[in-house]
Amino acid sequence: MKCSLCKKNNLDFVFSLGKQPLANKYPKNKNEIKNENLFDMNIYFCDFCLSCNLNINIDRNIFFSDYYYLSSVNSELVEHFNELALELKNKKFVIDIGSNDGILLRPLKYNNVKSIGIEPSENVGAMANFNGFKTIISFFDNKCAKLILDKYERPDCIVASSVFTHLDNPNQFIIDARDILDDDGVLIIEVEYLLSILKNVEFERFYFDRPYYYTLSSLKEIFTNNEMDIVDVKFIKPHGGSLRIYVKKKNNNQKISKSVLELYKEEKKLMTIDYIKNQFHNFSNEINALKTKLIDLKKNNSNVKGYGAPARLATITNFGKINKDLISHIIDDSELKINRFTPGMHIPILPYDKNLNLEEVILFAYEYYDSIKKKLNNSRINFYKPIPFKKMN
């Protein structure tokens, strides 16, 4: 089977995560639940460019016409983008692709850096504009690129955070970004890292919003094919351990950092199809362990609730057939998700209530454990990470 990224016939099936819904669609009533679609989520691996993909064709407009993820509700992410804005404080003009509710535009504006956002989700983009963060509501495509060149100067920096894995045509994205970027400019991509997912057995991070899962090697393949060089790479915390790569237009005198070269070598050594299949098998065992623990808690009449309704919750609950009989409801801080239901398993999503009796909490938004624990401020609550299941306090 041919890999959609590198076009080599090196794509092999490794695992199925079963029937899955669209993870960022939260039905609000019985009619939306009735019309919810499920698709087979099959995982494939290319042993040439070291990528994974879902090899399924779903119209990308479905995912982002309305969207329920707000970056700024997470204090850790706010701090992450505040730090990135400081790194960019000397840039002349920054374009933030996938700018969400303005989480990076806000500190850039504070630091007097000229910037605009591009956000395909109409509801989220409208919120950013309402709050004074200039946002073009559009997918970043050739038409949008031409609009930018007509109305603005060439950017010396383009940022795309947690955007690249959502693209069904990353090659065209690279071409459009390259063609508007200043000759000495930098394209900064923050991308969920496949090797981190494998090492941490966090396959709940697979969902249909993301058709591709990248290593540095697979990123190198497509950027090189489009006349660009990855010149530096950093590990960053978001999304279970991601990569921040710095990309420039190809130049014969381009200096490539030592960290880039070392990571290529590590990936070539570790990334085998046998390793990936083994890690998926471990994930299946961990899902079974989670369900067993939830059944045991229910038998003991424990009060079990979830906290956080990120997209990965859908993958866990649907693969494990975990419903409201095992978790009564999910607490979430996003106003866009409250009073809706989780995709597929339809567990109610409710706001936090300080009068709520919380005993056992499955923390689906486990990256934000410190801020959630501080907010709830109750030493009697037992917090658990779902995969692998473990007590967090």
In short:
The protein has 393 residues and is an alpha/beta fold. It contains 13 helices and 17 strands. The radius of gyration is 21 Å and the shape is globular.
Account of the protein in words:
By secondary structure, the protein is α/β, with parallel strands linked by helices. It has a domain of 117 residues: Rossmann fold. It is 34% helix and 21% strand. The chain contains 13 helices and 17 strands. A seven-stranded mixed sheet has the order 6-5-4-7-8-11-10, with helices on both faces. A six-stranded mixed sheet has the order 14-13-12-15-16-17. Helix 6 packs parallel to helix 7. The chain is globular.
- The termini sit apart by 46 Å
Order of helices and strands: EHEEHHEHEHEHEHEHEHEEHHEHEEEHEE
Read across the widest sheet, the strand sequence of neighbours is 6-5-4-7-8-11-10
CATH architecture of the domain at 275-391: 3-Layer(aba) Sandwich
Global morphology: globular
CATH topology (fold) name of the domain at 275-391: Rossmann fold
User: What is the C-level CATH assignment of the domain at 275-391?
Assistant: Alpha Beta
**Class derived from helix and strand content:** alpha/beta
Range of strand content: 15-25%
Instruction: Look at the structure and give the mean pLDDT.
Output: 92
Stretches where pLDDT is under 50 for at least 5 consecutive residues are none
Number of helices: 13
From the alpha carbons, calculate the radius of gyration and give it in angstroms. 21 Å
The H-level CATH homologous superfamily of the domain at 275-391, spelled out, is: NAD(P)-binding Rossmann-like Domain
Which percent range fits the helix content?
Answer: 25-40%
Quick one: biggest sheet?
A: 7 strands, mixed
The total of beta strands comes to: 17
